[in-house]
Write a structure and sequence with these properties.
68% of the residues lie in helices and 0% in strands. It is built from 16 helices and no strands. Keywords: Membrane, Transmembrane, Transmembrane helix.
């Protein structure tokens, strides 16, 4: 890594990481052959993690989130490497005897990590420039572009590493990527939407679910055609007499100036983080108060700090979906909001999907989107449960939580539950009367048996 080597045309230069992202073959070869590229790639993964989280997660309260992309990259890269090795073995093509599996994996991981700077695009703070819906659509579009770019780029990197055609490596990479994406999206879908009745999703959740469903469907229906194409490319590669040279073991040096890429990006992101991290740490503090049951203190902190002191995109607990923790109780939050006479923005922040969450906290997991389904089955719940649900919904009605559509829906829910409560009380009284009658008959029967005994 000597500057004097900078005149060597095979030296890794400042522009090579950028040209690598654009798919320039000469730069890709220099990057893969440089022994320092693995460490450089790791540094770029760290900056990519910062770009994802600097305006979304409090680094002080959740430092483990910065390690998420690194751990995920190792898992996904290993899966892709195994898939490519299987495909290579199936081709039966003879390879350079000097190459080793460990060396192949190191080069493979280097190429994967060097695609990390594409995630810098996620650092655009669109949330402070546009409303929630525009920001979501922008981020989903950006996610699609980066995902496609990264798959195509990495397929080209693998093609250069192993001396193959990109048409073959693209299908080899797509097969495991589609499987991973499908099951990840399926898990996200199952956590977001109830399988029975269904919850009433917010507008952003509806857009997100639609996007996830579209991508999952594309992975599901596209898997077989891509798998057939991958098998076909394996067959063609095994019969082909022409094959490009593999990347080989030749090492190239790196100019020190290349380290400006992770250094400058890290400094830039750290400066940007100073504008967002105080808000994120403050919101994390309020989240902790709410989960621990210090609801009055949490509400008072929000009231004293003001709306501008918190992130634009922030959904305090309890929230849906959140399997890990359903605290605090919506009814207790509503009590605190009524007691302190808070500003409207606090109610709006703390009561997103409050009706759905409140009923879920009482054991109703089927949602309220289908009122007919709700009416048919809520009547079978016990009187105390229905009464607690009604009490909470009444508090939400007093606070006028949600938009007009939500308030109208809540009114229908309350009407249905009042009828169900009356029916449940009648059923309970009938059961109690029947039980008392059975006990009276048993008592009379026992008395009759006693009187019939000899000597009685």
């Amino acid at each position: 890594m000597n500057d004097s080597a900078g005149t060597d045309p095979m030296t890794l230069r400042l522009r090579d990481p950028l040209l690598f992202l654009l798919g320039v073959e000469s730069s890709i070869r220099r990057v893969l052959r440089c022994p320092w590229s693995l460490l450089l790639g790791l540094a770029l993964v760290a900056t990519a993690s910062m770009a994802r989280e600097y305006d979304a997660v409090s680094w002080w309260d959740a430092p483990q989130d910065l390690l998420g992309p690194f751990a995920a990259s190792l898992v996904i890269c290993t899966i892709l490497f195994i898939a490519v090795q299987i495909c290579l073995a199936m081709t039966g093509v003879k390879r350079d005897s000097k190459t080793s599996l460990i060396g192949d994996y190191r080069t493979f991981l280097t190429g994967y990590w060097m695609t990390a700077p594409l995630a810098w695009l996620y650092a655009i703070p669109i949330e402070v420039m546009a409303d929630e819906m525009v920001s979501l659509r922008f981020n989903l579009t950006l996610l699609s572009i980066v995902s496609i770019w990264r798959v195509v780029l990495f397929s080209r990197v693998i093609a250069i590493q192993f001396g193959l055609r990109i048409g073959a490596t693209l299908t080899w990479i797509l097969v495991p990527c589609m499987v991973i994406a499908f099951f990840a999206l399926l898990s996200a879908q199952l956590s977001m939407v109830s399988l029975m009745g269904g919850i009433r999703l917010t507008q952003t959740q509806q857009v997100l679910r639609s996007y996830q469903s579209t991508v999952a469907a594309g992975c599901f229906y596209g898997f077989i055609p891509v798998l057939i194409a991958a098998l076909g490319s394996i067959a063609m590669s095994s019969k082909s007499k022409h094959r490009w040279d593999e990347i080989g073991r030749r090492s190239v040096p790196m100019r020190r100036i290349v380290w400006l890429w992770p250094a400058v990006s890290a400094v830039t992101l750290l400066v940007a983080a100073t504008f967002f991290q105080p808000q994120l740490m403050r919101s994390a503090k309020v989240d902790a108060m709410l989960r621990s049951g210090d609801i009055d203190d949490a509400v008072a902190t929000m009231q004293a700090s003001g709306e501008e002191a918190f992130p634009i995109v922030w959904d305090p607990p309890p929230k849906y979906p959140d399997r890990a923790d359903w605290s605090p109780k919506i009814s207790l939050v509503a009590d605190a909001l009524q007691t302190q006479q808070v500003e409207r923005w606090i109610v709006d922040r703390l009561m997103v999907q409050a009706d759905e969450i409140a009923l879920r906290q009482e054991g109703w997991f089927e949602g309220t989107a289908d009122l007919e389904y709700f009416q048919d089955y809520i009547v079978h719940r016990d009187v105390d449960t229905i009464d607690r649900m009604l009490t909470t919904l009444g508090k939400l009605r007093t606070l006028q939580v949600g938009d007009q559509e939500t308030q109208n829906h809540r009114g229908e829910l309350i009407r249905v539950m009042e009828v169900s409560l009356a029916a449940a009380i009648q059923r309970q009284e009938a059961e109690a009367s029947e039980l008392a009658s059975d006990e009276e008959e048993q008592t009379e029967g026992a008395a009759a048996e006693t009187s019939e005994k000899p000597g009685s």
